[in-house]
Amino acid sequence: MNSQESTDTAEGEGSGDEAERDDTQLEFEDSVTIDAGKEELWGFISEAQNLAQCIPGAESVTRETERRYTCEVTRGISKMTISIDGELEMVEMNEPDWIVADGEAFDSTTGSRFDVLAAMEMSEVEGDRTELAYTAELSYSGGVASLPKLVVRKAVTSDLNSYFENIRTEIEPERE
To answer: Where is this region: Disordered (predicted)?
Structure first.
């Protein structure tokens, strides 16, 4: 995987509420290259059972409609265990080139809420390989917001790296 970049949003000015929201927002951006064609990669990551295998901590992923998925994921962040019920909707899509997704999730035990806006673009590179570039904006509140921002960022970065490595593990051996 290429180097993983994550950046914090700029600190807000003005009311305390704006500054507090900025303290619970993270941005991620990176690209990875997978040994598969765009159509094959798109098909793989569009299937709920494949997502369930690749998303760290996924207990279930269900494709409700062509553009909407629900999931249950349990993850540990520092000393906190978060079991989220979430929904992700593909709000814009140009198959198999790019997608924009909007999602939200909630953990009732810690009262943590997560909102994400993510974009992904796929382009073929050198033969039958695909570069997958993504950006994601994550906002969070509740119990998880009591953790240091660096701890949350490291956990999400680790899960992103694992997700793409899991995709590689699943899709690349199939091509041999």
So the answer is: 1-28
| Among 134, 129, 127, CA closest to 172 | 129
- Which among 80, 157, 114, 62 is positioned nearest to 72, based on CA atoms? 62
Residues 6+ apart with CB under 8 A from 32: 1, 2, 131, 132, 164, 168
Output the CA–CA distances (angstroms, integers) from residue 102 to 35, 168, 172, in the order listed: 27, 24, 28
Identity of residue 19: A
**Paired strand residues for 76:** 81
pLDDT tens figures, 62-104:
999 999 999 999 999 999 999 999 999 999 999 999 999 999 9
Domains of the chain as residue ranges with CATH:
5-175 (3.30.530.20)
pTM: 0.83
